[in-house]
Amino acid sequence: MAEKKAFASKFIAAPGKKFSLAEHDPRDDSAFDDKDKTKEQLLKDAAAIDGLQDRLFAEGKRALLVVLQGIDCSGKDGTVRAVFNASGPLGVTVKSFGVPSEVERAHDYLWRVHQACPAKGYIGVFNRSHYEDVLVVRVEKLAAADAIERRYDEINAFEKLVANSGTRILKFMLHVSKEEQAARLQERVDDPTKQWKFKAGDLATRAKWADYMAAYETAISRCSTEHAPWHIIPADRNWARNAAIARIVREALEEMNPQYPLPKDWDPKAVKIL
Ligand code: AMP
Ligand code: MG
After folding, report:
1. What does the pLDDT look like over 199-209, one tens digit per residue?
2. Of 49, 82, 106, 210, which has the most beta carbons under 10 Å away?
3. What is the arithmetic mean of pLDDT over 228-235?
């Protein structure tokens, strides 16, 4: 168990410490020794996640929330596919957060997020999240500065509530380099099967790269907590990104160790199916 914990701890941004992205190489694959073996291990981890998810669902007492954040082309969608494709659709919910609707904007920013949190028994995956409210909202000045400033504490309190209610929270920042994003954006421009993903706004976001990275650093510095840690995942190599996240999710579920419930009020040995 101690050894397992050591894997996730390689990626965790220490709670209460100032966090700097410059210390994290998006191409780092030192957590793994061999690409082919790592890809095989990913399949095993994804299958194990499926089995653990079945137990979580049967137990029906706790939930797991996986938050995926990263700039365009960091591989959020690909991560969902690689890590959760082996899991049956019954017990996994995926929610993507885009520009808030009129109804959503008429409420506080956590309203839509709280509703999307996984019910007991479920794994919930957020593709973007409430962190957009201190990332794009901060960079684009979509809310008042003092309101944004309050949000870090509000988010910590909100996540504490969710954690105290039986939900394990794992947050992942998919850390892709500016060079790799350029290559992936170019692919979206060139490949007819990917052109639908390309939006002109992505280039405007890219032009503010430094502002976005600074906003990420602030959010991670202030919101990596014991109850909801941020993991910084090198994301220039898809295989290393997927494998790291799958391993961390598997470990967390193993630590939670969900149990199939025992029969209540009846004895399996006494039942005869005629
Ligand atoms: P995509 O994930 O590429 O489909 O794009 C979703 C877009 O919605 C991104 O540009 C996000 O920055 C944007 N978005 C998500 N949440 C918010 C928010 N709370 N306020 C403003 N924009 C948001
Ligand atoms: Mg996009």
Report:
1. 989 999 999 99
2. 49
3. 98
Q: What is the pLDDT of residue 5?
A: 59
Given the CA of residue 98, which atom of ligand 1 is nearest to it?
Answer: 8
Q: What is the mean pLDDT of residues 228-248?
A: 98
Complete edge-to-edge strand list for the sheet that includes strand 63-69: 92-96, 123-127, 63-69, 167-175, 230-234
According to DSSP, the residues that pair with 95 across neighbouring strands are: 126
Q: How far is the CA of 59 from the centre of ligand 2 (A)?
A: 36
Ligand 1 midpoint to CA 71 (Å): 10
Name the pairing type of β-strands 167-175 and 230-234: parallel
Which residues sit with their C-beta closer than 6 Å to ligand 1?
72, 97-100, 128, 132-133, 136-137, 142
| Ligand closest to the CA atom of residue 197 | 2
Q: Is the pTM of this model over 0.90?
A: yes
Q: Which ligand is nearest to the CA of 96?
A: 1
Cβ < 5 A residues, ion ligand 2: 72
Mean pLDDT calculated for residue range 142-163: 98
Q: Which one-letter DSSP state was computed for residue 61?
A: S
Residue ID of nearest Cα to ligand 1 atom 9: 98
Q: Pick left, alpha or beta for residue 268 (phi over 0 → left; psi -120 to 50 → alpha; otherwise beta).
A: alpha
What are the tens digits of pLDDT across the range 47-89? 999 999 999 999 999 999 999 999 999 999 999 999 999 998 8
DSSP notation for 174-216: EE--HHHHHHHHHHHHH-TTTGGG--HHHHHHHHTHHHHHHHH
The full set of domains in the chain, from first to last, is 2-258 (3.40.50.300)
